């Protein structure tokens, strides 16, 4: 039977601006029901950022009145790119631009600072794991799922029988850079969309805020010259406003989101043939929107996912829940599972 003195794990979600923390008990119950954010200070390099995570760790224990001795492990999730073991890419990235980050062992650095085992996942994988366990509960270890999370980029992950698929070098589940057919997706005369990764016509080049700004919005504004977004101070600013227009039923915005839904549907069609998952999750701002808009978007994704009859009978299409907390919660879940696996 669980007791007040049983052990817990802590989940730490590291982001470009903020850290968020949670606590999960040995029976799989979250002891924190809200966001507890603190500055992540990642731009100041690894030493400062690790110290900031230690502060988040101590803060969440204070808030939940849990003694440090009860913590058995810590889950950490960060934005990519990092190896499966949490070593930041030697090429740096938006979030890890400070030179100290190159090849930095983030997981190992936090483990040394805390003196506790640290389990690492990238943020998309952590959120995918959380969504999977929230939907399937006790059946999670027998189920598989794919999560596509629309943000600045297109993140997410693949969960197979309850395990995050990480791959040999940690790049499995990089769904944004999967190529999808563009025929029937692009409008007349619309240029082939390009992604920051160097590909053109991958999922992220369409289904991301970056894709709206770089590829979709410039084209659609040229088709709607009278649209008031043409008067926005910058294309970056206009891109951020598109969702509000979509919720209000604006035609240009709905064209953009329909293209995004088609891109995700095409990705899910590839997934259906590649892994045949039990569930397809969509996450991100586009489904954290008003219910009518969220349902419309999810319906468009479903409509554009080609499943065989047998698959359609079992497949579930739903959203990644509690997205602001999903990273920390998924990271904690991974730490809990690592203990059960020992
Ligand atoms: Zn790409």
Describe the protein.
A five-stranded mixed sheet has the order 3-2-1-4-5, with helices on both faces. The chain has a five-stranded mixed sheet with strand order 8-7-6-9-10, with helices on both faces. The model has no long low-confidence stretch (mean pLDDT 95). A hairpin with a 3-residue loop joins strand 1 (8-14) and strand 2 (18-25). The protein has nine helices and ten strands. The protein has 342 residues and is of the alpha/beta class. It is 39% helix and 16% strand. Helix 4 crosses helix 5 (235-247) and helix 6 (251-274) crosses helix 7. The longest helix has 24 residues, at 251-274. Zinc ion (ZN) binds next to loops.
Features:
binds zinc ion, 10 strands, alpha/beta, 5-stranded mixed β-sheet, single chain, 342 residues
Record the SSE blueprint:
Layout: E1 8-14, E2 18-25, E3 37-39, H1 46-64, E4 71-78, H2 106-114, E5 118-122, H3 123-136, E6 145-150, E7 154-160, E8 163-164, H4 209-223, H5 235-247, H6 251-274, E9 279-284, H7 291-303, H8 309-314, E10 316-319, H9 323-341
Parallel strand pairs: 1-4, 4-5, 6-9, 9-10
Antiparallel strand pairs: 1-2, 2-3, 6-7, 7-8
Task: Please count the helical segments.
Answer: 9
State the share of residues found in helices, binned by percent. Answer: 25-40%
Distance between the termini: 20 Å
User: Are there runs of 5+ residues with pLDDT below 50, and where?
Assistant: none
Shape: globular
Strand portion: 15-25%
Structural class: alpha/beta
Helix/strand order: EEEHEHEHEEEHHHEHHEH
Number of strands: 10
Biggest sheet strand order reads 3-2-1-4-5
Rg value: 20 Å
**How does the major sheet shape up?**
5 strands, mixed
- List bound small molecules: zinc ion
Write down the overall mean pLDDT: 95
């Amino acid at each position: 039977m669980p007791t007040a003195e049983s052990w817990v794990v802590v989940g730490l979600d590291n982001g470009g601006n903020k850290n968020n923390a949670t606590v999960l008990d040995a029976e799989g119950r979250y002891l924190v029901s809200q966001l507890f954010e603190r500055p992540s200070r990642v731009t100041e390099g690894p030493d400062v950022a690790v110290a900031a995570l230690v502060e988040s760790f101590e803060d969440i224990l204070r808030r939940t009145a849990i003694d440090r001795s009860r913590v058995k492990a810590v889950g950490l999730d960060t934005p990519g790119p990092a190896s499966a073991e949490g070593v930041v890419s030697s090429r740096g990235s938006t979030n890890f631009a400070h030179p100290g980050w190159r090849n930095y062992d983030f997981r190992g650095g936090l483990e040394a600072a805390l003196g506790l085992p640290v389990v690492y996942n990238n943020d998309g994988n952590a959120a995918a794991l959380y969504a999977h366990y929230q939907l399937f509960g006790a059946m999670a270890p027998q189920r598989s799922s794919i999560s596509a999370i629309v943000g600045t980029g297109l993140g997410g992950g693949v969960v197979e029988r309850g395990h995050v698929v990480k791959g040999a070098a940690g790049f499995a589940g990089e769904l944004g850079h999967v190529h999808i057919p563009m025929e029937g997706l692009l409008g007349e005369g619309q240029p082939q969309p390009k992604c920051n990764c160097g590909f053109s016509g991958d999922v992220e080049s369409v289904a991301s805020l970056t894709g709206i700004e770089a590829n979709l919005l410039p084209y659609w504004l040229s088709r709607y010259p009278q649209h008031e977004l043409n008067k926005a101070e910058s294309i970056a600013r206009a891109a951020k406003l598109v969702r509000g227009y979509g919720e209000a039923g604006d035609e240009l915005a709905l064209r953009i989101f329909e293209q995004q839904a088609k891109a995700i549907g095409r990705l899910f069609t590839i997934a259906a043939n590649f892994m045949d998952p039990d569930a397809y999750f969509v996450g991100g701002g586009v489904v954290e929107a008003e219910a009518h808009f969220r349902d419309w978007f999810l319906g468009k994704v479903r409509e554009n996912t080609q499943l065989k009859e047998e698959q359609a009978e079992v497949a579930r299409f739903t959203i990644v829940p509690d997205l602001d907390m999903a990273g920390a919660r998924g990271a904690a879940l991974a730490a809990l599972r690592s203990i059960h696996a020992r």
